[in-house]
């Protein structure tokens, strides 16, 4: 299968490094010619500056779209209408309205459409999902999660803090991963309240968001995302009726990824503890790529990923709207 990657930054490179062996990266596309040429030399593929030319290429069957947020939905829509399968990085669009155009295109021309929420495929999250679905430890009562980093010099001048490009600040940057994980592990939350704030970076967009989510069953998620941590953090706790699942780290600068299972005893008191430690290798990109190409080969043209991404964006919009009231 011949594919193209549009957007040759950090995420595009991670995708390229994680491609299955039977997939041929044929074209790399980027508006930054220097960056794109360097990428194409590294991965022995053709360089193209104009993404429209990539979509017109009849030899390309699928696209990985890893551009800035303002181009994600536009390129995805045109690619789908041209019959190309697409893997689009999160958040998929700046707004839910933009994402609707992708869904409309998909309904006209069913192909494989996936959005890149690779955190679902981290080993600790996979293990947590397995434990929850087993029902061995009861139902999820609430979730508490923190995700953050400390930025870098000049961070406030990057595209993530330019609303016309990103659509928002930290809430739409790291927020989608936590909102998606809550949905994946607990289900969609109907009610969303919270605050966005700017505490450190010299920008008009938020550098931190603090959120409460709740559904009609009374399950609650308390999450925060910030670029004010100074030490990278990923912490995800799931309280079940008979156990607690605590996930810490994502590997590398976030610390070793591990899952600690606290199992309630019948007489209660101090729980039994079981710990799972995972290698400091991030295979989530590889696993997500494999899922995308497996769906193509099996012709699984589901709209579930579009609907999940729509939920994430609508939740973010609720939070932005309520924060202004």
Task: Please describe what this structure looks like.
The protein is of the alpha/beta class. It folds into two domains: 122 residues, NAD(P)-binding Rossmann-like Domain (Rossmann fold, 3-Layer(aba) Sandwich), CATH 3.40.50; 159 residues, Dihydrodipicolinate Reductase, domain 2 (2-Layer Sandwich), CATH 3.30.360. Helix content is 36%, strand content 26%. Strand 13 and strand 14 form a beta hairpin. The termini are far apart. The mean pLDDT is 97.
Oligomer: single chain
Number of strands: 14
Structure annotation, total helices: 11
The helix-and-strand class reads alpha/beta
Which CATH architecture of the largest domain?
Answer: 2-Layer Sandwich
Task: State Rg.
Answer: 20 Å
* Major sheet: 8 strands, mixed
Low-confidence stretches: none
| First-residue to last-residue Cα separation | 50 Å
Look at the structure and give the CATH class of the largest domain.
Alpha Beta
Number of structural units classed as domains: 2
Query: Order of strands across the biggest sheet?
Result: 8-9-10-7-11-12-13-14
Proportion in helices: 25-40%
Basic shape: globular
What CATH calls the topology of the largest domain is Dihydrodipicolinate Reductase, domain 2
The CATH homology group name of the largest domain: Dihydrodipicolinate Reductase, domain 2
Proportion in β-strands:
25-35%
Question: What is the string of SSEs from the N terminus onward?
Answer: EHEHEHEHEHEHEHHHEEEEEEEHH
Mean pLDDT score: 97
List keywords for this structure.
single chain; 325 residues; alpha/beta; 8-stranded mixed β-sheet; 11 helices; 14 strands; globular
């Amino acid at each position: 299968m011949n594919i193209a990657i549009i957007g040759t930054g950090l995420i595009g490179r991670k995708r390229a490094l994680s491609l299955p062996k039977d997939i041929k990266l044929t074209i790399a596309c980027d508006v930054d010619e220097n960056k794109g040429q360097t990428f194409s030399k590294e991965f022995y593929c053709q360089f193209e500056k104009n993404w429209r030319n990539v979509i017109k290429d009849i030899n390309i069957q699928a696209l990985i779209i890893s551009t800035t947020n303002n181009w994600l939905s536009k390129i995805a829509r045109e690619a789908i209408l041209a019959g190309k399968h697409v893997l689009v990085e999160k958040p998929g669009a700046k707004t839910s309205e933009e994402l609707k155009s992708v869904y409309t295109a998909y309904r006209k021309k069913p192909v494989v459409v996936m959005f890149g929420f690779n955190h679902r495929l981290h080993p600790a999250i996979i293990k947590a999902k397995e434990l929850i679905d087993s029902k061995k430890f009861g139902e999820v009562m609430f979730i508490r999660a923190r995700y953050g980093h400390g930025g870098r010099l000049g961070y406030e001048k990057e595209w993530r803090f330019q609303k016309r490009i990103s659509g928002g600040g930290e809430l739409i940057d790291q927020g989608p991963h936590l909102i998606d994980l809550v949905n994946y592990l607990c289900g969609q939350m109907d009610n969303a309240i919270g605050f966005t704030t700017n505490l450190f970076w010299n920008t008009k967009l938020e550098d931190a968001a603090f959120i409460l989510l709740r559904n009609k069953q009374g399950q609650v998620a308390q999450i925060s995302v910030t670029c004010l941590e100074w030490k990278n953090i990923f912490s995800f706790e799931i309280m079940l009726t008979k156990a607690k699942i605590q996930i810490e780290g994502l590997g590398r600068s976030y610390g070793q990824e591990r899952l600690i299972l606290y199992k309630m005893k019948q007489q209660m008191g101090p729980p039994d503890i079981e710990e799972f430690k995972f290698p400091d290798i991030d295979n989530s990109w590889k696993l997500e790529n494999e899922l995308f190409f497996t769906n193509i080969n099996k012709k699984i043209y589901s709209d579930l990923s579009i609907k999940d991404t729509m939920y994430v964006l609508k939740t973010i919009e609720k939070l932005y709207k309520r924060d202004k009231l």
